[in-house]
Design goal:
Length: about 160
């Protein structure tokens, strides 16, 4: 998509108040909000590109980079933080080979991101997995052992689907 051709944004019209909806549409159709798509939104809704980019990077449901098949969100809200989710985050990034400053594994299967409180603090520390079919799994009382089993299961599913060898 180019700035001159916002082909997925017909129903959003030209009203700046439709910025979130426009970002949702692009995220859903293209899998992420690229700089080109952000420029197209800015042009169509007549809002500054910097505003589109700040909104796209503020909310965890949007991503400015291509996402993995499995999107893993690690809660770093206060309860999960105290209960050890930073160690779980480090473990996931290490076991999936995701370097600092990056979010997605090199095989394109996993994206790992930090999020604020997921509103299920009684199960802390909490990790959620957004599956390719749109469903969501909540992993409560997460620890490296539980996460290792989860990763193995997701890799197994990916092999069955033919996404990886
Ligand atoms: S702090 Fe993690 S679910 Fe609330």
């Amino acid at each position: 998509m180019t700035a001159a051709e916002p082909k997925h944004l017909k129903k959003e019209g030209t009203k700046p108040k439709n910025l979130i909806q426009a970002l949702k549409t692009i995220q859903q159709v293209e899998g992420h909000v690229s700089p080109e798509s952000a420029r197209a939104i800015a042009q169509q809704l007549r809002v500054p590109y910097s505003e589109v980019f700040s909104v796209a990077t503020f909310y965890h449901l949007f991503s400015t980079e291509p996402l993995g098949k499995y999107r893993i969100y690690v809660c770093t809200g206060i309860t999960c933080y105290i209960k050890g989710n930073m160690e779980n985050l480090k473990y996931l990034k290490s076991v999936l080979g995701i370097k600092d400053g990056h979010h997605t594994s090199s095989d394109g299967l996993f994206t790992v991101k930090e999020v604020s409180c997921l509103s299920c603090c009684s199960h802390a520390p909490v990790v959620t997995v957004h599956m390719p079919d749109g469903t969501k799994r909540i992993v409560g009382r997460a620890n490296p052992e539980v996460l290792q089993k989860m990763i193995s299961e997701l890799r197994h599913l990916a092999r069955k689907k033919g996404w990886v060898k």
